[in-house]
Amino acid sequence: MTRKKGANKKKQTTRQKWYSRLREWGKDLLWALAFLAVYLPGNYLTGCTLVGGIPPGTEWMVVVICMVLYLGWAWITDRVEGWSGLLLHVIIGWIACYVLILFLITVLLGANYLIPSSEPYQRKAVVCSKKEENHYRQMAHNYIGFRFLDNGVRFYYDAKQKEYDRLLPEDTCTVTFRDGILGCPVILDVKLEGRKKLERLPLERFLQDLEIKKRIRQ
After folding, report:
1. pLDDT (tens digit, 0 to 9) for every residue of the chain, 218 residues total?
2. Closest CA to 182 of 120, 103, 117
3. Three-state SS for 194?
4. Is the separation of the CB atoms in 130 and 164 below 8 Å?
5. Distance (Å, rounded) from C-alpha 109 to C-alpha 45?
6. Long-range contact list for 147-151, CB < 8 A, 24+ apart?
7. pLDDT given for residue 103 in this prediction
8. What sign has the CA pseudo-torsion 60, 61, 66, 71?
9. Under 8 Å CB-to-CB from 202, ≥6 apart: which residues?
10. What angle is formed at CA 186 by the lines to CA 172 and CA 112, rounded to 5 degrees?
11. SS3 call for 176
C-alpha cells in the first residue's frame, strides 16, 4: 500500500509540474501572438503612411521618458532589490515601453488608415532609390525612395515584392493617395508611367559595331 501511495504522489507531482509548465508556455505563446498582432499591422502601416512634422529621434525620447517613469514607479513601490533587480527592471521596462509605443502607433495609424478624410487623389513622383532589407523572410522590407515632381519632397514606401522588382531608378510613377482622419496621406497604389531610356553599355556598343563591320565586309 505504501508503495502505491508513493507512486501515486509521484504521478501527481509530475502532473502538477507539467501543468504548471504548460501554463507558462501558454502564457508565453499568448504574449508572442499578442506582440505579432501588434507588430505586423504596425509594420505595414508605417510603410505605407506618410507621417511628417515629427523630429528625428522622437520615438527614442518617448522610450526614455517611459523608462524613467517605470523605474521611478518600481523604486517607489520597493520592487527594485539590488543592482540585479535594477537591471531586470530596466530590461522589462524597455520591452514594455517598446510594445506600448508600437501599440499606440498601430492604433493611431490604423485609425488613420481605416477612416478616410478625403477622396483618393494622384501625384506624380520619380523613383530616387531602392533599398532591400531581408533580415527575416517574414519581415522583409523593400523600400523605394520617391521624389514628388511638383515640390521635390522625398518620401519612402515599403513596397510589395512585385512593385519593388518592377520599378527602377528614375522611373516616373503616378502615386495614388488618400488622407486619413489624422491628416496623414496613405499610399494606395503606385503605377508606372514612364521609364527613362537607358544608355547602351560599352560592351553592347562594341558588339553592335562589330556586327556592322561584318555586314560591310560581306
Report:
1. 555 555 566 666 777 777 777 776 776 677 677 777 777 787 788 888 887 656 556 667 777 777 788 777 777 777 667 776 677 777 777 777 777 888 888 888 899 999 999 999 999 999 998 888 775 555 678 889 999 988 888 888 988 888 888 888 889 999 999 999 988 999 999 998 887 765 555 555 556 556 655 655 55
2. 117
3. strand
4. yes
5. 6
6. 148/123, 148/124, 149/123, 149/124, 149/125, 150/123, 150/124
7. 85
8. positive
9. none
10. 175
11. strand
| Grid coordinates of 145 | 525612395
User: Which stretch of DSSP H or E encloses residue 185?
Assistant: strand 185-194
Q: Is 51 helix (H, G, I), strand (E, B) or coil?
A: coil
- Cα(25)–Cα(147) distance, rounded to whole angstroms? 48
What cell does 2 get? 505504501
AA letter at 200: R
Q: Contact 176/122 with Cβ under 8 angstroms?
A: yes
Quote the crossing angle between the two packed helices 82-114 and 2-48, to the nearest 10°. 50
User: Which residue in the block uniquely carries the three cell numbers 478624410?
Assistant: 117
Q: How many CB atoms lie within 10 A of CB 66?
A: 17
Secondary structure E strands in 101-184: 121-133, 141-148, 154-158, 172-179
**Burial of 144: CB neighbours in 10 Å, binned 0-12, 13-18, 19+:** buried
